[in-house]
Each structure stands twice: as structure tokens, then as C-alpha cells.
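We treat protein structure as text, and this decision shapes the records that our systems exchange. We quote a single record here, exactly as it is kept in our systems:
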Amino acid sequence: MKLYSYFRSSTSYRARIALNLKGLEYEQVPVHLLRDGGEQHGDNYRAVNPSQLVPALVDGDQTITQSLAIMEYLDEVHPVMPLLPQDAAGRARVRALALTVACEIHPLANLRVLQHLKGAMGLTEEVKNEWQQHWVKEGLAMLEAHLARDSETGRFCHGDTPTMADCCLVPQVFNAQRVGVDLGPYPNIARIYANCIELPAFKAAHPSQQPDAE
């Protein structure tokens, strides 16, 4: 398998965690999102993923895009160390937690949006950072409320083994810390993050450990 990835991309980070949790071997193909205007926009990568986004997973003659689709694909093709619970309600809950990150936080503070805010919209760096912090905090508050309320929350987002939800939570917390968001108001998120990053699969997926890390 090949994973087209950028070391600091949170979506790529999610896919790396999932691959590592399942103990799968894969080759990383770096796609630098900033160099030369963004390598994701070049013809070579557009042929892999016309959406011009990372990650993309190539498995034989299959190319899977979108990090959550990649994780679900891996779960179906390699069911050992499942990323989703066995029961329907549990699967729905884990998907909902993962989607809180993937749909409610990430799209409002990702690279494309931030570049547009500074470029076409003319926002200053300070105002751009305020925008990013605001939406990260809003999303983390939502996630924290669910984790605090639900009895299914355990050592990890759902019970005592990592799931797709944890694969999404950890990169989002990493990004939140990078932009100066204090985790104090989110004790469950902070606790689960601390538990996750002690596991080898999460350590190996960290941006600093990637071949294209700067």
C-alpha cells in the first residue's frame, strides 16, 4: 500500500494512526502542501486524487480518498484490530464523534480556508488566528460535551480500546495545541489524548516522525 501524505496534515495523521493500529505496512509518498504553491495541485498528484487533497491510499488497483473512507475501507479489508465497535449503536456513536472533528472543526480551520482568509479576504495574521482558535474551541466544546455525558466513554473515546474517533481526536488536539488552544476546559479530551499518545501506533504516526517532517 501507498499513502500519499503530508506530515503535518491532520487528515493524513488520522490515516497513519489507523494503518499503524492495524499493523499494516505501507509506503509514504510525501505531498508537500506548501512547496511551489502546493504539490497537491500538480498534474502528478491530480492523477491520483482529482480533489487535490491528502491523504490518498493506493491499495493494489484501488485508490481511496478521504480519511474516514480510508479508515472504513481498512476496517472492512483488514478487520483485525477493528476501528469501529461490533454493535450498531456503538458504530454510530464512534462515527458521530469522528465526524464532529472531521465536519465541525477541521473544515473551518484547514489550510485552504486559512489561505483564502489571508489572501482573497485580506485578513491579517492576527485575525486569521482568532478565526482558527474560535472554531477549534467551538468544536472541542461540542466533542467534550458528548464525551462527558456518555457512559460509553472510557479510557478512550469509546470504551478502553482506540477507535476511529481517537484517530480523529489526536490530530485535532495536536493542531489545537499548535495554534495555542488551552485544553483546560476539555478534561476528557485531554485525558484521552494523553492515553492515546502513549501507544506505539500513535507515536509512530506523529508528524515529527514522518519522512517529510521539517
In short: The radius of gyration is 17 Å.
